[in-house]
Specification:
single chain, Rossmann fold, eight-stranded mixed sheet
Length: 309
Amino acid sequence: MFSPRQLLRSAVYMPFAHIPPGRVVELPGRGTTYVTDTPGPSEGSPTIVLLHALGCTGLLTWYPAIAPLSQRYRVVTLDLRWHGQGIQAPEMSLYDCADDVVALADVLGIERFVAAGYSMGGAVAQRVWRQHPDRVEGLVLAATSAAFRFTPWERLFFTGLEAGMIAARGISGSRAAMTASRSAARALQLVPSDIHDWAMQEFRSTSPWAVGQALAALGRHHARPWLGRIDVPTAVVVTTGDHVIPPSRQVALARAISGATMHEVDGGHAACVLQAERFVPVMVQAATTVAARRRDLGRHSDLGAPQQV
């Protein structure tokens, strides 16, 4: 007989990659969250802030991509509210998550950055631009959508979920405290045989209750009325085998943003990890495209500036 641990190891492919060290960071007036901050190739490297998927952590979603992205960018991850060691607040809101991202940038001394998000993180990235357009110099949106209530079934599902979360909100504080107390210290010196155990620890650091709160918040996201006003270089990574967020919705997101480039990955909704060998090169390509377009815009702006006499 195989143990659950042995079955996990044999049934689920987990790529091995270096896990960068991190720390708990206080966001003044907001709470604490777990952050990794990987330097880029030079002191003046642009910064990319990676925002994770529903039910995951910053590291669990992005760990295979951090080292490749750090060849061009300073790479920052954080645990969003109610996830992992993220802020434990009475309510979960994507609006607050977006403000948390900018609050972290303030603490780290980052003036402007590229916001990159996967699935739920993509919705948060959209909101970061919406709420703080002066801080965002580019977007990378992967496996995500402009909204999540399209069909009658989806509208019914999210309406019922919101009602259930509101009715049970009285116990949210105790649930949040329980989740926080379960969060273990992150393992840093891993060998390939440890990666499944580490991933399971990361996954378990977010409670099912927190996932329900975050899912309800995700159902309230609706960016379609203002997507056309996004004015920073944007790349959309489309997971073409996705059965969670249909590729057609991801393509529609790209087409709604003026000048957005589209980058396809032959993978499903968990491609960021389970098909990392396909996803990571495309993600790096998308981020490189945003960086190049950002430089071009800066150069054109300099050329158009009035000359001092």
